[in-house]
Write a structure and sequence with these properties.
D-Maltodextrin-Binding Protein, domain 2; 44% helix; 3-stranded antiparallel sheet
Length: 441
C-alpha cells in the first residue's frame, strides 16, 4: 500500500509539473512575426493571433479603411503570427486558464470544435451575423456555431478546384478541358509522365484536405450528419485506394515533398515545374502568388474532375473562423471591427482582392469590383469567377464534430503514412483501425 501511495504521489507531482509547463508555454512562446497596424494617436489597441501570415494582409487593409471611416474610434492592431500547433494550443490554454488570450483570433476549421466544448470562452456574434446571414453561404456559419450562437466568422467558401500548369499540359499534349472525370485525369497523367519531366500531381502524406474533398464530392465524409463515424465506408476506402494507385500503380504522382502542400519543399518543387496540377481550394491562390512566383501566367483553374459524368466537381474545404475572446477588454469594439472586416460587402470584396479567397458572401460574386484587374487575374487569368459560378451548386458542406481534430491527427500521422508511404496497411485496414480508434476515444 505504501509503495502504491508513493507511486500515485509521484504521478501526481509529474502531472502538475507538466500542466505548469504547458501553462507557461501559452504565454512565453514568441510569435514568428509581429506587425503593428494603425499606430496612431488615441487609437485603441487590439491584439490578433493567426497561424497564417497572409491573413494579416486582410486586417491591415481593414484597419486602414476603418481608421479613415471612423476617426473617432481608431484601432491599433497588434497582429501576431504563430506556428499552427503552437497558436491553437496556446489559445486553448489561455482561454481555459482565463489569462493571456488575444482580443481576436483565427481558429482553423478542424480545431474549432475544441473551443466549443463546455461553455465557449468566446463572444457570440449574433447581433452582426443575423442581419446579413441570408446574403451568405449559411453552412459556413453553422460550422462555427453552438446552441444557436455564432462564434466564428468565416473567411471563405473554400471551393476546391484543380490548378493546372498549362505549360506542362501543353508539352504533354493534353487539352485540360477534355478532363471530365478522375479516370480522364489518370489517363492525362500518363501522358504527362511519358512526355515531360513532371508528374501529374503529388499525394499528401501529412495533409488531408485533398482526400477530404475527394470523398465529399461523392457525398461521403468522416462523420454523418448525426456525428456517427463513417470513416471506413466503401467510398472512403475506394478513394484512398485511388490515391495510393496514382503513386504506386499508375505512377503518375509522387508523395508531396515536405509531406503536405504548405511546406517550403513543396513550394520549391512546384515552382520548378515538378508537377502539372494540384487540387486545392480557391484560398490556395495566395500560396501561388506569394511562394511560387515563377509560375505566374502558367497556372489556370478548372473544376475538379467528377467521379462520374454529371457528378459533383467541387467541395467546400478548409476554413478559418475568426473569433472574439471573452478576455477582450474592448469586446464591443472588437466585434464591430470583425464584422466590418469579414461580414460587410466591402470586407468580402477585400477577401478576394487582398487574399484571393472566394468570399462567403455570395451577393458580391458578380459585383463589378470583383472584375477589376488584380494580381490574381494577372497570375491565373480572368476566368476565376466563371469557374466558381459554374460549380457553386456542387459545393458540399462538411460535417465537423468535436472528434474532427482527432481524425485529422490520425490521417496526417498514421493513415497516409501506413498506406502510401510505408505500404504497411491496405486502405481498408487503415481506415477500419482509425474508425475504431475514433469511436473509442
Amino acid at each position: 500500500m505504501l509503495k502504491r501511495s508513493l507511486l500515485f504521489m509521484l504521478i501526481g507531482l509529474m502531472t502538475l509539473l507538466l500542466i505548469a509547463c504547458n501553462k507557461n508555454s501559452a504565454t512565453s512562446g514568441e510569435a514568428e512575426e509581429t506587425v503593428v497596424i494603425g499606430d496612431e494617436e488615441d487609437a485603441t489597441e487590439l491584439t490578433f493571433w493567426t497561424f497564417v501570415e497572409l491573413h494579416t494582409d486582410l486586417f491591415k487593409d481593414s484597419v486602414e479603411r476603418w481608421n479613415k471611416e471612423f476617426p473617432d474610434k481608431k484601432i491599433k492592431l497588434v497582429a501576431e503570427t504563430y506556428p499552427y500547433d503552437n497558436m491553437h494550443n496556446n489559445l486553448l490554454l489561455a482561454l481555459q486558464s482565463g489569462k493571456g488570450a488575444p482580443d481576436i483570433a483565427d481558429i482553423e476549421i478542424s480545431r474549432f470544435p475544441n473551443y466549443l466544448q463546455g461553455e465557449p470562452q468566446l463572444e457570440p456574434m449574433n447581433d452582426y451575423v443575423e442581419p446579413v446571414k441570408d446574403k451568405f453561404v449559411e453552412s459556413r456559419f453553422d460550422i462555427y456555431a453552438k446552441d444557436e450562437n455564432y462564434y466564428g466568422i468565416p473567411t471563405h467558401v473554400g471551393a476546391t478546384v484543380m490548378y493546372y500548369n498549362t505549360e506542362i499540359m501543353e508539352e504533354a499534349g493534353v487539352d485540360i478541358d477534355s478532363i471530365k472525370t478522375w479516370d480522364d485525369y489518370v489517363e492525362a497523367g500518363k501522358k504527362v509522365v511519358e512526355n515531360t519531366d513532371a508528374v501529374m500531381t503529388t499525394v499528401e502524406t501529412e495533409g488531408f484536405n485533398t482526400y477530404w474533398a475527394m470523398i465529399s464530392q461523392q457525398d461521403s465524409d468522416f462523420f454523418d450528419k448525426n456525428g456517427e463515424v463513417i470513416i471506413e465506408n466503401e467510398t472512403n476506402v475506394k478513394t484512398l485506394q485511388f490515391l495510393n494507385a496514382m503513386v504506386h500503380k499508375d505512377k503518375i504522382a509522387e508523395m508531396t515533398p515536405g509531406g503536405e502542400s504548405h511546406a517550403e519543399e513543396y513550394y520549391k518543387f512546384m515552382n520548378e515545374g515538378g508537377a502539372a496540377s494540384i487540387a486545392m481550394p480557391m484560398w490556395y491562390m495566395g500560396r501561388f502568388t506569394d511562394y511560387m512566383e515563377d509560375l505566374k501566367g502558367k497556372i489556370t483553374i478548372r473544376p475538379l474532375p467528377a467521379w462520374e459524368e454529371g457528378g459533383k466537381r467541387s467541395a467546400g474545404m478548409g476554413g478559418t473562423g475568426t473569433v472574439i475572446t471573452n478576455q477582450s477588454e474592448h469586446a464591443e469594439l472588437a466585434k464591430e471591427f470583425l464584422a466590418y472586416t469579414k461580414l460587410s460587402e466591402k470586407g468580402n470584396i477585400a477577401l478576394w482582392k487582398v487574399l484571393g479567397f472566394d468570399p462567403p458572401r455570395w451577393d458580391v460574386w458578380e459585383h463589378k469590383a470583383m472584375k477589376e484587374d488584380n494580381k490574381f487575374y494577372q497570375y491565373f487569368g480572368t476566368n476565376i469567377f466563371d469557374v466558381l459560378l459554374e460549380i457553386k451548386d456542387e459545393i458540399n458542406a462538411v460535417n465537423v464534430t468535436a472528434k474532427t481534430p482527432l481524425v485529422q491527427q490520425k490521417f496526417n500521422t498514421t493513415v497516409f503514412n501506413n498506406v502510401i508511404r510505408q505500404q504497411s496497411q491496405t486502405p481498408e485496414e487503415a481506415l477500419k483501425q482509425t474508425a475504431e480508434e475514433v469511436r473509442n476515444n
